[in-house]
Amino acid sequence: MNAIVIVDKNWGIGRDNNLLVHLPSDLKYFKEKTTGKVIVIGRKTLESFPGGRPLPNRLNIVLTGDENYKNDHCTVCVGEESLEKELLKHDEEDVFISGGERIYEQFIEKCNVVYVTKMDAEFVADKHFPNLDESDLFQMTWESEPMKENGIRYRFTKYERCTEPAL
Questions:
Q1: Maximum Cα–Cα distance for the chain, whole Å?
Q2: Does domain 2-161 have CATH number 3.40.430.10?
Q3: Cβ distance 42 to 62 under 8 Å?
Q4: Which terminus of the chain is more exposed, N or C, with fewer CB under 10 A?
Q5: Domain extents in the chain
Q6: Which tens digit of pLDDT belongs to each residue from 110-153?
Q7: Which long-range contacts link 80-87 to residues 24+ away (Cβ below 8 Å)?
Q8: Taking the model in full, what pTM does it have?
């Protein structure tokens, strides 16, 4: 299983149910990595997408605790057990945990690879991603050259698990 995220210097990921910033090249990177794959998101993350609709050309699985939640445009899993059953239908290398904060926290220990776009900027955030630089579970194995877009310096990075994933 993989995760994919964009973070600021403090590992902030969002504020008021939105991304901290929209970098077109990061959105393109996200699209390249996840098109044709499975993304796992929370209900609030789905609602933050344009029109509150699932992203095209990938299977959108929404994890919620609300047994009454319905959405005809994506797969809805109520609770982690339901999600785990659904994920058995897919190759784990094709699964991308894609937010928000609670979903990342719930599944980070089950991921083998985490793709992190790291911005060299600080924003006011009310949602964060676990700091992988302080984690014993992951190590950075690749980073791109620094880039700049919309006045923000950033780079793409890849973290890989150092130990076996939690079961």
A1: 46
A2: yes
A3: yes
A4: C
A5: 2-161
A6: 999 999 999 999 999 999 999 999 999 999 999 999 999 999 99
A7: 80/106, 83/40, 86/61, 87/1, 87/38, 87/40, 87/61
A8: 0.95
